[in-house]
Amino acid sequence: MFGIGMPELLVILVIILIIFGAGKLPEIGGAIGKGIKNFKKATREPEDIDVTPENKKIEPK
Question: What pLDDT shows up at residue 26?
């Protein structure tokens, strides 16, 4: 997977723990999970916006 092995993943995890702290990790994980869920939902739904132009009459002044 992109040349990333177990030692590299552990180093990345330690850096994330140092930056954000253990208390913030569940919040960050939940936010990322919700973002991925919303993205998948948006890609599956049909487009709700009608973008077809309407023929409008131009009234003379």
Answer: 87
